[in-house]
Amino acid sequence: MIATLLFVAFLVLMVAGVPIGAAMGLAGAACIALANGDAQWFGLLAVPQNFYAGLGKYPLLAIPMFVLVGAIFDRSGVAARLVNFAISIVGRGPGMLPLVAIGVAMFMGGISGSGPATAAAVGGVMIAAMARAGYPMAFSATVVGAAAATDILIPPSIAFIVYSVLVPGASVPALFAAGMIPGVMVGLALMVPSVWLARRHGMGAGEAQQPRPPFWRSLREASWGLAAPVLILGGMRLGWFTPTEAAVVAVFYGLFVGMVVYRTIGVRDLFAILRDSGELSGVILVVVSLAGIFAYSLSTLGVIDPVAKAVANSGLGEFGVLLLIMAMLVAIGMVLDGVSIFLIFVPLLWPIVQHFQWDPVWFGVILTLLVALGQFTPPMAVNLMVSCRIAGVGMEDTVRWVRWLVASMVLVILAVSAWPQLALWLPERLGY
To answer: What start-end ranges are recorded for coiled-coil regions in this protein (predicted)?
Structure first.
């Protein structure tokens, strides 16, 4: 009865408009109190303890730093210089600007690890450029929103950091390495329908009339941005710093590029950068800490084991259960953000992972792929919200185009599910 009340209270609060983190915390705290009966006030001591326990984990320190990195590089003008460099490589022509948008978004993923931050940075440059070349605003917003979804797969990734905190045996470096090949596969899979749709519908008629940036000049201007992922990922691989320390190094590198090299960031801009990144980091970390209360109530009420046993013994078999989990998470990803999905469902799914002896790193990649799919699948697609706001179009206008990109990404998810080595080969090769 109390376990049912936990989920009913959570859903009612969420439907009533209560922020998802607060809904998890309130529902969890109420059920902890009810479960302790007469000793409910003593039992409620678990609420502040688990609030702190959910937050007091060293890998989580990297989250505000990588959010800050995304804000710094957004304002530094790195995205615009990377766009010029990409255009100088692929040239002008129908369908080339969508290809550039996806390629630059993938590269920005190696800097910030935040999908919405990349959607804002790349969308601010590419949507206007695509509009001048004759692309419909809804199509441009769709491409940018989908492209930004690659950022939680290509390291550094905030989603992988959260997952590593929740799951034993899945280190941050191993997850970062495991996400590289699937992330590139997603980017390539998104390029194919984007270019095909653009050419099929005659988009980008004015693109070929615009001048092609000179290669060497574009390379020189973009070199500082190109060096950022090399510094972050290379430094971690060489053992110079941990992922958390890498985030701090990236912050100072971004400030140096923006304030000294490009001189696009002034002292007055620092307050706005710190304020925006602080607000976003605060939201993420408060949701993480409140989810600790929800997860504790799940374990206290004995919900996890019966659910796991029911799924494992459902008769669907290993692949049937995996497909069921994937279908469930795709549906949930349409209405919940990625961090919330991880925090709510990983504790429930972990016993199933152990039952079937699935590799925790591979399963983390599968979950992240599904979350990435939800980031540009209406009705609640955080990346698509950002790009649609920049383009000035409604999300319903993107459905015509987004379905093709969703189908392409589903094929990648099925491929990584069928061949786990697509995710596990690189971390094994690197010795993680």
So the answer is: none
Residues 6+ apart with CB under 8 A from 74: 117, 120, 121, 124
Contacts of 9 (CB under 8 A, 6+ apart): 26, 27, 30, 31
The string of pLDDT tens digits covering residues 73-125 is 777 778 778 888 888 887 777 778 898 889 888 887 767 666 777 787 788 77
For residues 286 and 20, the answer to whether their CB atoms sit within 8 Å is: no
Is the pLDDT at 41 greater than 60? The verdict is no
- Identify the pLDDT of residue 246: 81
pTM over 0.90: no
* Distance (Å, whole) CA 205 – CA 232: 39
Burial category of 307 from C-beta neighbours within 10 Å (exposed 0-12, middle 13-18, buried 19 and up): middle
Going by the DSSP 8-state scheme, the letter that residue 212 receives in this structure is P
Q: CA nearest 115: which of 301, 398, 357, 382?
A: 382
Cis, peptide link before residue 379, omega less than 30° from 0: yes
Alpha-carbon distance 206 to 165, whole Å?
A: 49
Q: Return all residues near 309 (Cβ < 8 A) that are at least 6 apart.
A: 351
Q: Can you read off the two tokens belonging to residue 329?
A: 């998470």
Burial degree of 36 (CB within 10 A; 0-12, 13-18, 19+): middle
* pLDDT tens, position by position, 143-193: 998 998 888 888 878 788 888 888 887 888 899 899 999 999 999 999 999
Residue spans per domain, the chain: 59-430
Neighbours of 126 (CB within 10 A): 28
CA distance 255 to 263: 10
Kindly tell me the burial class for residue 344, based on how many C-beta atoms sit within 10 Å of its own C-beta (0-12, 13-18, 19 or more). Answer: buried
DSSP-derived 3-state class of residue 247: helix
Residue positions counted in the chain: 432
| CA 25 to chain CA centroid, nearest Å | 23
Contact between 79 and 185 under an 8 Å Cβ cutoff? The reply is: no
**pLDDT computed for residue 39 by the predictor:** 44
